[in-house]
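We both want to read discrete structure tokens more fluently, so let's practise on a single case. Would you write everything just below, so we can both look at the same thing?
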Amino acid sequence: MRAQSTSLMVLLALVAMGSAAQQPATQAAAALSHELHEALSLAEHGQPRQAYEKVNEILSAHPNYASALKLKGMLLEGAGRGEEANASYAAALKITPNDPDLLYKVGVYQLIKGDRREAIQLLEHYLKYEPKDGDALFYLAQAYHLTGQNDAALKAIKACMEVKKDDPQVWQKYGELLSGTGDNENAVVWLGKAYKADASLNRIQYDLGVASFYTMDFDGAKAYAQKALADNPNDRSSLELLAAIEVKLAEWDDARQSYEKLLVENAKDVPSQLGLGHCELELKHTQRAIDIFRSLLQQDPSVALAHYYLSRAYAALGDSAQAQYEAELHRKLMDATSFEATALGVEQDRAAWEQAKKLLAAGNEDGALRVFKESESGLHATPGRPYFMVGALYMYLGEPEKGLKYLKKSLQLEPKVRGAHTYIGIYDLQQGRLDEAEAEFKAELANDPNYLNASAELGSIRYRQKKWNEAIELLVKSHTRTPGLLIELCDAYFKTGKAQDAKMTAEVIMVYAKDDQSAIDDLLSLLRANGQEELAGRIAGVGR
């Protein structure tokens, strides 16, 4: 790929063209243009410092002169001051939003900085002017990939390959993206082609190792991982890959050593602790494995797989009751996790939420609404949903009056819009209006009997009405992850004499309330009130 900093002479020519396009008719403006060309001449003749002083002089009098801002950015970039250069380019882009060179440069910088959504918008805009720019297509593919838009990433890299037919780096990226979408057989082909053409490509051995791993060529994957580590012994991702391969090959002692090396660098790395405990379990070091998993769960109670391994370990020790308890807890956590993954949605949805949140904070409701309209697609593309999303976001931001306005608007546009009745009901519930809240939740469930949030909140109403069994049924059905609702479920279990279910629910609460001290305190009080001192003590020690 071309470097972000191209030759100064080429960049100066681009500034000159931009200046000519801005050439004004007035005598004063003509004089300003002449001053800019003086700065250009200084830069062309190897006097960048004097050129920089001259362009700053121009900008002090004319701060919105786009060509001067662009030249300043180029001079800063030539001096290796990338962040300042980008700030100058970005300022110029605001004034000339269709300047292709600025769109490209700011887009690439935003990608490097980590603002991938902004990078995508700028690079897409740039490609309208230069649709055959292979470098821009390459960077756009990377930006799509990093935001989870793998289909769009593949489309962009294929377009790049049409322009850069013989570029091994593009073949490597194509192979990496194929692997990311699960097409590892073709990924191996393209990565192998890139490796054959240029064995010095950055991380090519690692990429081949990953693709080979997922085609279950574990011996080949191991060879690539070992070569990657030989080239870079401190590459953590290659060591992680090697450890995973050794596990697949049942080379437990080698895998244990790999995980121990990883833990030297980061003693609290969760995957490495989990991997080490698994190795110790397979090596029949059962108590050592239990100690590792228990320590891991004290650090991070959300690691569901640790409970599965603990179940195996206790079974090996002959403790069938504890083994069954851990197995059931693993099942509950995995069940909740599967619903959590569905609820979170795709990366694009989360990005739209964050962008809209910034716009609402700046008072730009129309902009936030537009973001949701543009991001919604497929089954969710309904008239009321963008208004529902703005309303839900306002409720999340603690502005219920504005939120209710948009939620009610969404129902006017689409009486069966999913979620609006539930959010209105939650607000009613917070205000102590149980009858109104129940009516909203029932209206939601009449539209969609499987809307889980409504089931959860209706369960909370039944709990407040002391209808314990109905509350349990609705809360369990909802697969809720909300600590307050789970605490109500835990209490309902205790009140119906189901202590084992209550204890298991308490363990689940540890996962979702680990950063919510108020919820943990409420849970501890509930456990101690029901004689569960041992469990309360263990929960109180989590994360300490």
